[in-house]
Amino acid sequence: MKTPIKRWFRNRWLLRTCGVLVVLWIVFVGYIDWAMHQSPEVFGHVMMHMPMPAYFLFPFETMWTQARFGHVNPGDSAPDFTVKTLEIKTPMQLGSLWTEKPVVLVFGSYT
Q1: Who contacts 10 (Cβ-Cβ below 8 Å, separation ≥6)?
Q2: Which residues of the chain, if any, have pLDDT below 50?
């Protein structure tokens, strides 16, 4: 039979351990949230080192949706940005394209 003192120490240890795990989980989620708001290169570097079990413990999809939520509505003009072309690898500004002709942006994977 366990004495009340042993039970008290065991419960106290268990409570502290759970508290530390919750704090570590919150810090890690905050770090991932910070990384999701950075450039794709920084985010890719962070995610490259992510262990596989972490994908099951943290709400990545929800966080990603909130981090990358845009402010463009249907019918609005696209924001001007610069990208590298696939063929030339030189920067091209989107605004320079739509002065000559209409531009359609398609985002997705066709592989």
Answers
A1: 2
A2: none
For the stretch 55-66, pLDDT in tens is: 787 777 888 778
- Domain assignment present for residue 96? The answer is no
Distance CA 1, CA 97 (A): 80
Residue 24 domain boundaries: 4-71
The mean of the pLDDT values for the chain is 81
58-87: per-residue pLDDT in tens? 777 888 778 777 777 777 777 777 877 777
**What is the spatial distance between Cα 104 and Cα 87, in angstroms, rounded to a whole number?**
18
Tokens of 104: 């359609």
Closest alpha carbon to 54 in 36, 78, 28, 34: 28
57 domain residue, yes or no: yes
Contacts of 47 (CB under 8 A, 6+ apart): 35
Total tally of structural domains belonging to the chain: 1
